[in-house]
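Problem: given the chain below (394 residues), write out its structure.
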Amino acid sequence: MDAETAVEAAKQGSTLVLLDVPQYTLIGIDTQMVSVGPAFKGIKMIPPGPHFVSYSSSTRDGKDFSPVTGFFIFSGPSEVIVRKWDAQEERLVKLPQDEEERYCCAVRNWEFDRFLGPYNLSQYGDWKRLSSYITKTIIERIEPIGGEITVASESALHKSTPKTAKENALDEQLKASRFSTASDTSNARGCYYTSIPHVIKHKGIDVQQLTSLNLDKTHLLESVLQKDYGGSEDMLLGELQYAFVAFLMGQSLEAFLQWKALVNLLFGCTEAPFHTRSRLFVKFIKVIYYQLKHALKKDCTETSGASALLDDSWFSADSFLYHLFKEFFLLLQDASVVDGDLLSWTRKLKALLESNFGWEFVQNSAVDGIHFEEDDEFAPVVVMLDDPNSTEVP
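Solution.
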């Protein structure tokens, strides 16, 4: 980037000022992570929009780190956001408004420029695909009191929740950690995620109808969309992305459980993908595709801190994801009419899973769930459902 372009990017982009952060602290923004040096005072050239900031304090020798703490921001053009390190609590805190304004003026006068690291714009495309539905409204609706998301305050929230072996091991690690104190959980406040029922219960209907409602979660999806999202499909997808980011970059177990609940809800629908909500499922499959594509990058676990939660169970054919995908591919095979975009993106997702996980989705027939011969009389009819309001994710 030439000097003129860099100056313009610094002017138009937002700036995150991080004061007094100790050396070796890990600071992350979106998919990027850096180790703090002695002159570090923040990050510049940040594109306007949603971002996830994370950090992990270090011991003096830089070898051991605390559990990750993260928070979402929604920055505007040329906006300056200021946080200062609280040495006693080992966390970033907001400043009084008058003090923050002084730092904002200093940034706009270029007094901080040589202490600010540039946002890596070459990685921005990946982040946009992971956050395409996250809005300021989504952030304000879900974020916990104080805005901070950390697994250190979640152990008490999940005592009665079934966990994987990796999640249980992480709980034990937190209990034994020098960073885990009584204050971590005494004032624990989780995110305000939407409650997703695991089982549908209705009075006054027979057993057969109740069984049908639980086998096909289309009715539950419609209920959740209307009751909790005001009918907005994009808000549901925004929460799905919020939870995934908080899980992957923020190592939040609570976020993982919410992401899993939303994925189970959507993949549990057998009617909606082909009739009432076909466009939602096109967008949903694209979201899942980009999430898994990023999570499976070779350098992802090294740069985002995701290795603590992405264990071997993700790659097992016994994982919940494998069974959900297999059932969905079979459902697609049996459908009489399929949206062309849905078929196309599902094929891309299947190829990604097969190449990265080594999974095989062989159905009972010789033909798999989403590849058909052109003259196959039993293949579903592929239709293109135009939607002028839909947006393409780059």
